[in-house]
Amino acid sequence: MSLEEAHDRWQESASALGERSAYKKVWDRQAREFDVAALAVGGFIDEETLDQRAQGTLETLRQKVGLNREDVILEIGCGIARVGKPLSRLCLHWFGSDISGGMLGHAARRLKDCPNTTLVELATVGLQEFPRDAFDLVYCTVVFMHLFEWDRYRYVEEALRVLRPGGRAYFDNFPLDSDHGWQVFTQGGRYPLDRRPAHLSMSSSREELRTYLTQAGFADVVVHDLPNGLIAATGRKPDE
Amino acid sequence: MSEDPNARAAALQAELDAVKRREAEFRAKMVHEFLDRGERNTYLHSLREERAALVKRGQEASADLEVLTRKLEAAGRKAEALQSELAAIKGSVAWRLARFFGSAPPPAPARPAEHPPAAGGVFTYYFHTSPFRLYRDATFTLRGWAWPEGGGSVTGVRANLDGRLFSGRLGLEEPEVIARYGPQPANPKPGFEITFETPPGRHLLSIEAQVANAEWQTIMGTSIWCEPLDP
Questions:
Q1: In this structure, which of A87, A176, A214, B44 has its CB flanked by the most CB atoms within 10 Å?
Q2: pTM of the model
Q3: Mean pLDDT for chain B?
């Protein structure tokens, strides 16, 4: 499938904005074909570019929250395991969670040679499938733009619960005041009112992310401006 | 004719006394011989050597005892070190990972070569009960529907868990799927269900279908975690 064809199919697979909260339905529809799924979650369809982009995310995680060989890591909204596939080689075990079983089907194929990985389909918004105090690092990248604010905060709260004391958290989104962020915002604005898709990307502010993490109970909350035009909030679960 | 036991005992006692007497006479004679030859010290020397040998045996026994004591002390120190190491491990991530799934999951058993996962096929499919989960029961029933995109009827379905095969049930009605995708002449009832065991630990699961009574093909494969059962 060419990139243009994938774009067309992606448009066809889009749900209406009014269905934005029906995350499972919205993202399962976009997961029916691998190329469309890859485009929807990564912006690219070829493995090489997906891997290259994932390296950028790994570097960001390494710099902002650290990556250790002994880490048990959870990704919220892992999609096709764009980040999880290379990250699994750098940690003890990587868990990928996603609300779309269709996306996880593609992830399973990409992870067939990565035994220290586990995929878990989320029943709804939240991390109810996981016990408390289980992970060293929980991260969520390029996901918040597709969620309503209340659901963003729900995942932050849940991340605190499933992290072990001292565990680290990372959440990112695009802001309006970066070139990249403004470009995404204006592109979204070009959709006709009646054709705005459910997955339409919506920004976060630094104050918003900082407030989520602080209100949830994280310590050492820091908001970072990343070179790729995103902003990221990091925090640490307080020691018991 | 029976012999009188008392008489027999008296005879044996007399014989024993005679032997003792002869031995005493022999020893006395030997001493006299040593004395006659002016080698009194030689006999004393042999007695002293016997005593030295006994002392040496006693010393060796003491040395053995000391070695055993040292080994016991070393074992005690090793036990203390292991206790410390265990405490450190219990604080480690790996231990928490094991706790996350209950007791430490055993390594995945070696997959029998006769049942490796089937080659991947291209199927249109859906699982009503998602296989992407933390397995918490002794068994799991996967329900879904599938047909090969290249055509052909599905004539068998199974789960392959680390090489162990679990046959499934085919031919379940899926009216909503047929309504959505249109009639599927090769697979008019594309639904299936497979129940497979989920022993604690990490396993490789592949859901496989047999197409047109020929080769088996993998619909979907993934690594799964199974938690120990609650006591």
A1: A87
A2: 0.70
A3: 82
